[in-house]
């Protein structure tokens, strides 16, 4: 199924496409967790934001950065 999605790409080419996306995702999660721990949150409790950031890939951290950060 993966080969159907990526067409005729070799395994190494697929890895070179996926690795930066995974690094970006992990970086967003780490950024969100550090903001939650240091500055606090708004709109929901910290536990809810942690769950959203963990469970909703890419859109969870982006939603937190837009709606959940406590303004200074």
Could you provide a short overview of the structure?
Helix content is 74%, strand content 0%. It is mostly helical and 72 residues long.
What keyword list fits this structure?
72 residues, mainly alpha
Assign an overall shape.
elongated
The protein's oligomeric status is: single chain
Number of domains: 1
**What is the averaged pLDDT score?**
89
Indicate the radius of gyration in whole angstroms.
16 Å
End-to-end gap? 47 Å
- Provide the succession of SSEs: HHHH
Helix content: over 70%
Helix count, per DSSP?
4
- In the predicted model, the low-confidence regions spanning at least 5 consecutive residues are none
Main sheet, how many strands, which sense, barrel?
Answer: none
- Count of strand segments: 0
Task: Walk me through this protein's architecture.
- This protein is mostly helical and 72 residues long.
- The chain has one domain.
- The chain has four helices and no strands.
- The longest helix has 28 residues.
- It is elongated, with a radius of gyration of 16 Å.
Summarize the helices and strands and which ones pair or pack.
Layout: H1 2-6, H2 11-38, H3 46-55, H4 59-68
Helix pairs in contact: 2-3, 2-4, 3-4
């Amino acid at each position: 199924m993966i080969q159907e999605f990526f067409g005729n790409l070799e395994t190494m080419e697929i890895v070179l496409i996926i690795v930066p996306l995974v690094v970006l995702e992990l970086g967003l999660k780490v950024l969100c967790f550090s903001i939650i721990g240091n500055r606090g949150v708004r709109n929901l409790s910290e536990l809810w934001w942690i769950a959203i950031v963990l469970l909703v890939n890419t859109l969870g951290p982006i939603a937190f950065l837009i709606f959940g950060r406590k303004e200074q």
